[in-house]
Amino acid sequence: MWSTVELREIEVFLTLADELHFARAAERLGVSPSRVSQMLRGLEHKVGGELLSRTSRSAALTPLGERFFAEVHPPYDELRSVLERTSAAYRSLRGSLRLGLLAANSGGRHLTAIVEEFERLHPECTIELSEVFFADPLGPLRRGEIDLMATRLPIAQPDLTVGPVLAREPMVLAVADDHPLAGRKRVSIEDIADFPVAPITDSPKELIDTVIPRRTPAGRAIRRSTRRPKTPHEVTALVARGQIVHPTVPSFAQYFGQPGITYIPISDMPSVRSGLVWRRRDVNPRLREFVRATRAILATARDAQRKRSTAG
Fold first, then answer.
1. Would 278 disulfide with which of 145, 148, 151, 172, CB 3.0-4.6 Å?
2. How far apart are CA 55 and CA 202, in angstroms?
3. Any idea what the CATH number is for the domain that residue 57 is in?
4. Coiled coil: which residue ranges (predicted)?
5. Are residues 164 and 300 in the same domain?
């Protein structure tokens, strides 16, 4: 039965051993004297002997109680110190928060303001930015190599939480300057089915199939090239050479663009969102405060946009 002893029962015993008075011990513990007596009896039952002798007016340690007190007090104090230090470390934001970017443009145009606001509010914590590679888009997050990630959406994974939306962008089609579609003012998703595409990865499926569908609304298959690029720069190289077309967003050109590519609006594909994603059961306080700062900056940006629209 000793293996079922609880930390609270040890605390009750040590407080009683210090006070040798049930009422005073109960007052220190914030419980009733009867509860103190009940917990002591439970502890004695588990260790197999009487620890305190009681009278109507006093209590005294038995020989077993004196031995138990001498042996349990030091490790109890040590364990309590460990728990207090762990709790304090949890509450503190001191350290760093690791933010991964699945493509630099996934953070949206407010990311710099979000990071600066967080570090202004919490100067003891810094943001460490790193690139997440398309070959293993969710691996670093799941392995704990980063704390959260800015990525294109949708992400629908049972172990991950999707947080604030950072940006929304319309879809465009990247084609070579001399491509048959290059002179068009806009294209349809049906037009894409006439040419091969080459996504870097097929996972997460819900994201890739949203950005680069496998079929058009009319049911036509959108051909996947057998040659798969490994990086966005390899994608642009294939596009510029006319080997593939690439559905993407306008900011792709800002971060990964190269000469020889034209970007044409896709008229019948919905806008693509990007947002923050983190592990579902992560209770990191730095993560919580970063999400709070993100929501505040995005709300301020929305208010400013509404005021500009009203003024216009």
1. 148
2. 75
3. 1.10.10.10
4. none
5. yes
Question: According to the model, what pLDDT value does residue 57 have?
Answer: 62
178: left (phi over 0), alpha (psi -120 to 50) or beta: alpha
Q: Are 226 and 284 contained in the same domain?
A: no
The pLDDT value recorded for residue 102 is: 92
Tokens of 205: 């499926």
Q: What is the average per-residue pLDDT within 85-97?
A: 77
Same domain membership, residue 82 and residue 29: yes
Helix axes 7-19 and 22-29, enclosed angle (nearest 10): 130
CB 246 within 8 A of CB 197: yes
- The domain in which residue 36 lies consists of 2-91
Average pLDDT, the chain: 91
d(CA 135, CA 63): 67
pLDDT class of 312 with cuts at 50, 70, 90: low
Q: Express each pLDDT in 190-214 by its tens digit.
A: 999 999 999 998 889 999 999 999 9
Beta bridge partners of 95: 125
Please state, in angstroms and rounded to a whole number, the distance separating the CA atoms of residues 2 and 43: 8
Number of independent structural domains in the chain:
3
Q: Which has more pLDDT, 80 or 234?
A: 234
∠ CA(232), CA(235), CA(239), 5° rounding? 140
Q: State the virtual CA torsion across 284, 273, 193, 201 in degrees, nearest 10.
A: -20
CATH number assigned to the domain comprising residue 207: 3.40.190.10
Nearest to 256 by CA among 101, 98, 99: 101
Same domain, 240 and 127: no
Whole-angstrom Cα distance, residue 92 to residue 278?
Answer: 20
List, in sequence order, every residue forming a beta bridge with 96; answer none if it has no partner.
126
Phi, psi of 277 (to 5 degrees): -135, 140
